[in-house]
Specification:
The chain is globular. Helices cover 78% and strands 0% of the residues. The protein is built from twelve helices and no strands.
């Protein structure tokens, strides 16, 4: 049960972080949001690792964290850009397809969910897909937004699997710190190379947005930690599906705060996702 609760906590935190990141991308460039939020998270993590002596937990598994740190900025960049270009209530649920990566890994490692859990996985994935459907009376996404979203989903699913793998032998705090430092190095390099973020007034907007950027980065770190802990305490496949419900959180926040309209099929999808969650928790 603790594994399911941790995975749901990851889902809530990721949903809040994505809403915040998507909102900030409407004022700042997506790459600036990625680099600044991850830098803020690194500033919080480095002293924490040093304080607990986490640097001594370094192992060969850290290469998985490095890989996650390289892939992460591009996944977040694509996702935040998609959230800024399309309706959050539609774009975010489409990202649930990324769960196929960690779920597939769990199955390859020999995990076999029971009947109730299999039904829960099906309900959660189908619900996320329905929640992302657009059409008349609701938000829609164009080809560009669709490509960005699916690319981000694949990248984020891969990052989830890599972080879980990297922390297999312990040292979760160090894994998250290395991941964030790599995020900043890669994203910052791309930012400098493209000379992005120098538009008039960007510096002032960035300063005013620092508290929100820090909150986004902190929530993202906490979500990664919760998911990694959940995957170690229970089934990777089940934890991945529960944690992948974050788009429902983002969609509901967009509905409540941005007044985005949701169609009946999208509400049905959210309901199926919740039902799938209950089945997984019961299993």
């Amino acid at each position: 049960m603790l594994s399911q609760l941790l995975a749901l906590a990851a889902s809530l935190l990721w949903g809040m972080a994505d809403y915040g990141g998507g909102s900030l991308t409407r004022r700042l460039s997506a790459l600036t949001v990625v680099v600044a939020s991850q830098a803020a998270a690194a500033v919080l993590l480095v002293p924490a690792v040093l304080a607990v002596g986490g640097a001594g937990a370094a192992s060969a598994g850290l290469w998985y964290a490095v890989a996650a740190g390289v892939i992460g900025p591009f996944a977040l960049l694509a996702f935040y850009r998609a959230l800024a270009l399309g309706p959050m209530g539609v774009v975010s649920p489409l990202a649930t397809v990324g769960v196929a990566v960690p779920v597939g890994l769990g199955l390859l490692l020999g995990e076999r969910p029971g009947p109730a859990q299999a039904g829960g996985i099906a309900g959660a994935v189908l619900g996320g897909g329905l929640a992302g459907r657009g059409g008349r009376g609701g938000g829609t996404v164009g080809l560009r937004v669709l490509v960005l979203t699916l690319s981000a989903a694949l990248g984020m699913g891969t990052v989830m699997a890599l972080v879980a793998r990297a922390s297999d032998g312990g040292g979760l705090l160090l894994v998250l710190c290395v991941q964030r430092l790599c995020n900043v190095a890669v994203g910052g390099g791309v930012l400098l190379a493209g000379r992005r973020g120098r538009e008039p007034g960007a510096a002032g907007t960035l300063r005013r947005s620092l508290p929100a950027l820090t909150a986004v980065g902190a929530a993202d770190v906490a979500a990664n930690a919760a998911f990694a802990a959940a995957s170690h305490r229970g089934s990777v496949a089940v934890a991945a599906v529960l944690a992948s419900l974050y788009p429902v959180v983002t969609a509901l926040m967009a509905r409540g705060l941005l007044k985005e309209r949701l169609r009946r099929v999208q509400l049905l999808g959210a309901g199926l996702a919740v039902a799938g969650t209950l089945l997984l928790a019961a299993g």
